[in-house]
Design goal:
The two termini are 44 Å apart. The chain has one domain. Mean pLDDT is 81; it is low at 457-465 and 471-477. The longest helix has 38 residues, at 57-94. By secondary structure, it is mainly alpha-helical. The protein is globular, with a radius of gyration of 22 Å. α3 (57-94) runs parallel beside α10, α10 packs parallel to α14 (380-396) and α11 (323-350) packs across α13. 80% of the residues lie in helices and 0% in strands. It contains 17 helices and no strands.
């Protein structure tokens, strides 16, 4: 009598829903709370900017110099490496490899500590040279160094928070990270002005207070997420008796995460380069552009509201071999993200002065920021489109074309901005180049995935039915 093959592990109900539930209701159910809560988190950063703006143009300009680097770290930890973590966990659960999913949580925490220490060292050793290169000097540079020193001293906390949240999101659970974010944001709103301006026995710490409030938020969130994973309530239950390093698990995270990191670097270098171009027009231009560009960064957590669930859905479907469903989920999420981002962009285009006036009364700051919003705002939908397709590609484990699209965005923005200054087109030319770069980013990402970039050589054009036949998936009746 031959031994019967062991039955595969039963699917957790949460994993089963990712594989079988109707896509649009599932994306809306998982994504809408995410959008609201992550939008609130981004709004907390804007509130901090509002308070820092009360300290003057130099304070606003100094923080604007550091902001692209802070966002680079945020986007790498939450979107790039964090996306690699979520993708790995989702694909392991979809393939019913529960032990691997548990071990991935440990490896994710280890990687986050390593990357956090690397960012701390890089900011300490190269921060001043970078901020000078971006146009900072005098009081603006001193503010930048103060804010940078405080934020990057706690870089490990930011990385740990986003790594643990990514583990939980990879299981399809968007609620717990959303709750942690919401509670933390509620605490951050009063804490930030309290530390910036002081109260009673608390001294006024200025921009350092804003950075300290941010680190306290991440400390509390990290402890909460660690408790949740250790409590046994999560689908993923990290092994707490010791870490056994596995090269295959580290590479599985880094294979997706490192490619995502290239894309993240390209996004933030594009902003940093534009900040440097604005620096040629003085501190007010730096402050104006940096403040206006925060709206573009605001789109990242908003789009991630749907991108996070999309990583989990696409990754789980790919792990289970359901390629058709992975594609359907991708285009559903792409439509939602485009509408959301374009709506924000059109509002900014229509009311740029109202937005800028929230942060500074200086007419030169308002003029520079308003010019950016009028020229670039109408193209925000393409930024949202490219970004959500990047998240979907993380879930699929196929990031080549979204990364290339973002590199193209960087090249267009940097080269176009340089030519604009060389030909005397000024800030308007710099911002027009950024608008063209966003258009290319979204269109190239969408065309590549529609052309079959996930499942083989790119073909132009390729109809959906032909692609599905190639995948040996029956067409819908």
């Amino acid at each position: 009598m031959s031994d019967a093959a062991a039955p595969p592990p039963a699917l957790d109900p949460r994993t089963r829903r990712l594989l079988e539930a109707p896509l649009l209701p599932t994306l809306l159910r998982l994504g809408t709370p995410n959008v609201l809560v992550l939008g609130a988190q981004a709004a907390a950063g804007l509130i901090e900017t509002w308070f820092i703006g009360k300290l003057g143009v130099d304070a606003l300009g100094g923080v604007a110099l550091v902001f692209p680097v802070v966002m680079l770290m945020q986007m790498m930890s939450a979107g790039a490496i964090g996306g690699g973590i979520s993708s790995s966990v989702a694909r392991a659960l979809g393939a019913r490899r529960r032990d691997d999913a548990d071990a991935l949580a440990q490896h994710a925490a280890l990687l986050s500590v390593v990357f956090g220490l690397a960012f701390t060292a890089a900011a300490l050793l190269g921060g001043e040279a970078l901020y000078r290169r971006m146009g900072g000097d005098g009081a603006v540079l001193q503010v930048a160094l103060t804010y940078s020193g405080w934020v990057f001293a706690g870089a490990v906390l930011i990385w740990l928070f986003n790594a643990l949240a990514s583990v939980v999101r990879g299981t399809g659970n968007m609620a717990v990270p959303a709750i942690v974010t919401c509670v933390g944001t509620a605490a951050l709103v009063p804490l930030s002005p309290l530390l910036i301006f002081g109260w009673g026995p608390l001294p006024a710490l200025g921009v350092a207070g804003g950075a300290l409030a941010l680190l306290l938020y991440y400390l509390g969130g990290t402890l909460w997420l660690a408790w949740y994973l250790a409590s046994g309530r999560s689908v993923v239950r990290p092994l707490l008796r010791g870490l056994h390093l596995r090269r295959d698990l580290l590479l599985d995270i880094l294979r997706v995460g490192a490619a995502g990191a290239v894309s993240t670097v390209a996004t933030n270098v594009a902003i940093a380069v534009a900040t440097g171009y604005a620096g040629a027009h003085g501190a007010a231009a730096i402050a104006g552009y940096g403040t206006a560009a925060r709206l573009e960064y605001l789109l990242v957590p908003l789009v991630f509201g749907f991108g996070g669930p999309l990583v989990a859905i696409v990754g789980t479907c790919m792990g289970a071999g359901q390629r058709r469903r992975a594609l359907q989920a991708t285009w559903t999420g792409a439509a939602l993200a485009f509408v959301l981002a374009e709506g924000v962009g059109l509002l900014a285009t229509a009311f740029p002065v109202a937005w800028m006036g929230l942060f500074s009364p200086d007419p030169d700051v308002i003029a520079a920021g308003s010019l950016y919003l009028r020229l670039v705002g109408p193209f925000y939908g393409f930024f949202g489109l490219g970004l959500v397709l990047y998240f979907a590609s993380q879930g699929a484990g196929r990031l080549l074309w979204p990364v290339l699209a973002n590199v193209v965005r960087l090249l267009v923005a940097a080269t176009g901005g340089w030519l604009a200054l060389r030909w005397g087109a000024g800030l308007a030319g710099v911002f027009a180049a950024q608008a063209l770069a966003l258009l290319g980013y979204g269109v190239l990402s969408a065309a590549a995935i529609a052309g079959g970039a996930w499942f083989g050589p790119l073909g132009w054009p390729r109809r959906t039915d032909a692609l599905l036949r190639r995948l040996q998936v029956p067409a819908a009746p």
